[in-house]
Write a structure and sequence with these properties.
The protein is an alpha+beta fold. The protein is built from two helices and eight strands, in the order E-E-E-E-E-E-H-H-E-E.
């Protein structure tokens, strides 16, 4: 999967290209893309991590076969909507509230990491192929 290393938060979408390659003939049942935020707060044993799906896209609408040695490419635009923590909402207000939000985020050790995940459902396989790539939102 080819996606940019970073994207602007306000764009609310990521454009990319997914490439499929097969060493043998396979039937593809579905291709799903997700924009995921891995959010954590706290440190050490007190650390809590949650995962939020910010956007989803079904890349193909019908099953299809891919032949041995064949490559298929799909351009995509994955739209997403950010989830904001209380600290993020305060930061957006600016001024004193913004400063408090920044301080709260720092003290809580709040951190978000974003990924685009591709999952390909292949008929007759126990472990489906996929890809997970990190993207920085600026």
């Amino acid at each position: 999967m080819d996606i940019p290393k970073e994207s602007k938060k306000e764009d609310s979408q990521v454009a990319g290209k997914l490439k499929l390659f097969s060493k043998s003939e396979q039937e593809i049942l579905s291709i799903e893309l997700e924009m995921v935020e891995e959010w954590s707060i706290g440190r050490g044993e007190d650390k809590i991590t949650r995962e939020f799906v910010l956007g989803e896209l079904d890349l193909v609408e019908e099953n299809f076969k891919i032949n041995s040695g064949e490559t298929k490419e799909y351009d995509f635009i994955l739209k997403y909507e950010l989830v904001k923590s209380k600290n993020d909402k305060m930061k957006d207000k600016g001024g004193v509230s913004g400063a408090l939000g920044k301080a709260g985020s720092f003290l809580d050790a709040e951190k978000s990491v974003f990924y685009v995940i591709a999952d390909v459902d292949v008929k007759g396989t126990a472990l489906d192929p996929g890809d997970k790539q990190r993207i920085k939102l600026v």
